[in-house]
Amino acid sequence: MSQHQAHIQWSRQPDERFVDLRFSRAHTWQFDGGVTVPASSAPTAVPIPYSKPENVDPEEAFVAALSSCHMLTFIWLAGKDQFVVDSYDDLAIGHMSRNDQGRMAVTTARLEPKIVFSGEKSPTDEDVARLHHAAHEQCFIANSVLTQISVGGSWTKA
User: Fold this and answer.
1) Which of 1, 7, 65, 86 makes a 20 to 30 Å CA pair with 14?
2) Between 125-138 and 58-80, two packed helices, what is the crossing angle to 10 degrees?
3) Cα–Cα distances in angstroms (integers) from residue 94 to residues 67, 97, 107, 115, in the given order
4) Averaged pLDDT in 10-residue chunks for the chain of 158 residues
Protein backbone atom coordinates (compact mmCIF):
# COMPACT_ATOMS: atom_id res chain seq x y z
CA MET A 1 0.00 0.00 0.00
CA SER A 2 1.15 3.52 -0.63
CA GLN A 3 0.66 6.69 1.34
CA HIS A 4 0.11 10.15 -0.10
CA GLN A 5 0.29 13.37 1.83
CA ALA A 6 -0.29 17.05 1.47
CA HIS A 7 0.51 19.74 4.02
CA ILE A 8 -2.31 22.29 4.17
CA GLN A 9 -1.50 25.55 5.95
CA TRP A 10 -3.69 28.56 6.83
CA SER A 11 -3.37 31.26 9.46
CA ARG A 12 -5.56 34.15 10.47
CA GLN A 13 -4.24 37.60 9.70
CA PRO A 14 -3.80 39.83 12.79
CA ASP A 15 -6.41 42.36 11.62
CA GLU A 16 -9.12 39.70 11.04
CA ARG A 17 -11.71 39.21 13.80
CA PHE A 18 -12.66 35.74 12.54
CA VAL A 19 -15.95 35.46 14.46
CA ASP A 20 -17.59 37.86 12.00
CA LEU A 21 -16.65 35.38 9.21
CA ARG A 22 -14.73 38.11 7.39
CA PHE A 23 -11.37 36.44 7.05
CA SER A 24 -9.23 35.26 4.19
CA ARG A 25 -9.63 31.68 3.06
CA ALA A 26 -6.29 31.84 1.20
CA HIS A 27 -3.96 29.04 2.22
CA THR A 28 -1.28 26.78 0.73
CA TRP A 29 -0.99 23.16 -0.23
CA GLN A 30 2.53 21.78 -0.02
CA PHE A 31 3.31 18.41 -1.52
CA ASP A 32 6.09 15.97 -0.69
CA GLY A 33 7.96 16.80 -3.90
CA GLY A 34 8.33 20.39 -2.71
CA VAL A 35 5.66 22.08 -4.85
CA THR A 36 3.56 24.67 -3.04
CA VAL A 37 0.20 25.59 -4.54
CA PRO A 38 -1.72 28.72 -3.53
CA ALA A 39 -5.25 27.65 -2.63
CA SER A 40 -8.49 29.27 -1.51
CA SER A 41 -12.18 28.66 -1.24
CA ALA A 42 -14.09 29.07 -4.48
CA PRO A 43 -15.50 32.58 -4.99
CA THR A 44 -18.87 30.93 -5.66
CA ALA A 45 -18.81 29.60 -2.09
CA VAL A 46 -17.14 32.49 -0.25
CA PRO A 47 -17.22 35.98 -1.81
CA ILE A 48 -14.21 38.04 -2.80
CA PRO A 49 -12.16 39.45 -1.00
CA TYR A 50 -12.31 36.48 1.38
CA SER A 51 -11.65 34.10 -1.51
CA LYS A 52 -8.82 34.50 -4.01
CA PRO A 53 -10.09 33.51 -7.46
CA GLU A 54 -6.53 33.25 -8.81
CA ASN A 55 -5.80 30.43 -6.34
CA VAL A 56 -6.83 26.81 -6.83
CA ASP A 57 -9.98 25.85 -4.95
CA PRO A 58 -10.71 22.32 -3.66
CA GLU A 59 -13.45 21.72 -6.23
CA GLU A 60 -11.10 22.61 -9.12
CA ALA A 61 -8.42 20.39 -7.63
CA PHE A 62 -10.90 17.53 -7.34
CA VAL A 63 -11.89 17.81 -11.01
CA ALA A 64 -8.21 18.10 -11.99
CA ALA A 65 -7.41 14.97 -9.98
CA LEU A 66 -10.20 13.04 -11.75
CA SER A 67 -8.97 14.17 -15.16
CA SER A 68 -5.30 13.62 -14.40
CA CYS A 69 -5.87 10.12 -13.03
CA HIS A 70 -8.00 9.16 -16.04
CA MET A 71 -5.36 10.54 -18.43
CA LEU A 72 -2.46 8.77 -16.71
CA THR A 73 -4.34 5.48 -16.75
CA PHE A 74 -5.48 5.96 -20.38
CA ILE A 75 -1.99 6.70 -21.76
CA TRP A 76 -0.53 3.75 -19.82
CA LEU A 77 -3.19 1.41 -21.24
CA ALA A 78 -2.72 2.82 -24.75
CA GLY A 79 1.03 2.19 -24.52
CA LYS A 80 0.39 -1.38 -23.33
CA ASP A 81 -1.74 -1.88 -26.45
CA GLN A 82 1.06 -0.48 -28.65
CA PHE A 83 -0.79 2.73 -29.54
CA VAL A 84 1.40 5.85 -29.58
CA VAL A 85 -0.19 8.88 -27.92
CA ASP A 86 1.37 12.20 -28.95
CA SER A 87 -0.86 14.44 -26.87
CA TYR A 88 -3.83 14.41 -24.53
CA ASP A 89 -5.60 17.70 -23.87
CA ASP A 90 -8.63 17.73 -21.57
CA LEU A 91 -10.92 20.51 -20.40
CA ALA A 92 -12.59 18.77 -17.47
CA ILE A 93 -15.69 20.35 -15.94
CA GLY A 94 -17.28 19.45 -12.63
CA HIS A 95 -20.77 20.47 -11.60
CA MET A 96 -21.93 21.21 -8.08
CA SER A 97 -25.46 20.30 -7.09
CA ARG A 98 -27.29 18.61 -4.25
CA ASN A 99 -26.59 14.91 -3.90
CA ASP A 100 -29.10 12.23 -2.84
CA GLN A 101 -28.70 13.29 0.80
CA GLY A 102 -29.45 16.94 -0.08
CA ARG A 103 -25.83 18.04 0.49
CA MET A 104 -23.82 20.17 -1.94
CA ALA A 105 -21.29 18.04 -3.80
CA VAL A 106 -19.46 17.77 -7.09
CA THR A 107 -22.05 15.34 -8.43
CA THR A 108 -20.90 15.10 -12.04
CA ALA A 109 -17.68 15.59 -13.93
CA ARG A 110 -17.31 15.65 -17.70
CA LEU A 111 -13.96 14.85 -19.30
CA GLU A 112 -13.51 16.01 -22.90
CA PRO A 113 -10.04 14.84 -23.90
CA LYS A 114 -8.67 15.57 -27.34
CA ILE A 115 -6.15 12.84 -28.03
CA VAL A 116 -3.65 12.68 -30.87
CA PHE A 117 -2.19 9.29 -31.82
CA SER A 118 0.65 8.57 -34.22
CA GLY A 119 2.70 5.53 -35.15
CA GLU A 120 2.01 2.54 -37.29
CA LYS A 121 -0.88 1.15 -35.26
CA SER A 122 -4.02 3.29 -35.36
CA PRO A 123 -6.82 2.79 -32.84
CA THR A 124 -10.41 2.38 -33.95
CA ASP A 125 -13.32 4.17 -32.27
CA GLU A 126 -13.97 0.90 -30.43
CA ASP A 127 -10.34 0.78 -29.21
CA VAL A 128 -10.56 4.32 -27.85
CA ALA A 129 -13.89 3.62 -26.15
CA ARG A 130 -12.44 0.43 -24.61
CA LEU A 131 -9.36 2.33 -23.39
CA HIS A 132 -11.55 5.04 -21.82
CA HIS A 133 -13.73 2.41 -20.14
CA ALA A 134 -10.71 0.55 -18.79
CA ALA A 135 -9.09 3.81 -17.65
CA HIS A 136 -12.24 4.71 -15.74
CA GLU A 137 -12.40 1.25 -14.15
CA GLN A 138 -8.74 1.37 -13.10
CA CYS A 139 -8.39 5.05 -12.10
CA PHE A 140 -7.66 5.23 -8.35
CA ILE A 141 -9.46 8.55 -7.95
CA ALA A 142 -12.58 7.49 -9.86
CA ASN A 143 -12.69 4.37 -7.70
CA SER A 144 -12.60 6.58 -4.59
CA VAL A 145 -15.60 8.84 -5.25
CA LEU A 146 -19.35 8.81 -5.85
CA THR A 147 -19.23 11.51 -8.56
CA GLN A 148 -20.72 10.44 -11.89
CA ILE A 149 -17.90 10.76 -14.45
CA SER A 150 -18.54 10.79 -18.19
CA VAL A 151 -16.01 10.96 -21.00
CA GLY A 152 -16.47 12.54 -24.40
CA GLY A 153 -13.75 14.13 -26.46
CA SER A 154 -12.15 13.15 -29.70
CA TRP A 155 -9.07 11.56 -31.13
CA THR A 156 -7.08 11.99 -34.30
CA LYS A 157 -4.10 10.49 -36.03
CA ALA A 158 -1.12 12.83 -36.39
Assistant:
1) 7
2) 120
3) 10, 10, 8, 20
4) 93 93 97 96 96 97 98 98 98 96 96 97 97 97 94 93
Stretch (H or E) spanning 44: none
Q: Kindly report the pTM of this predicted structure.
A: 0.92
The pLDDT assigned to 1 comes to 85
Task: Tell me the residue length of the chain.
Answer: 158
**DSSP character string of 82-108:** TPEEEEEEE--EEEEEE-TTS-EEEEE
Beta strands at 93-98 and 104-111: parallel, antiparallel or unpaired:
antiparallel
CA angle (107, 115, 62) in 5-degree steps: 25
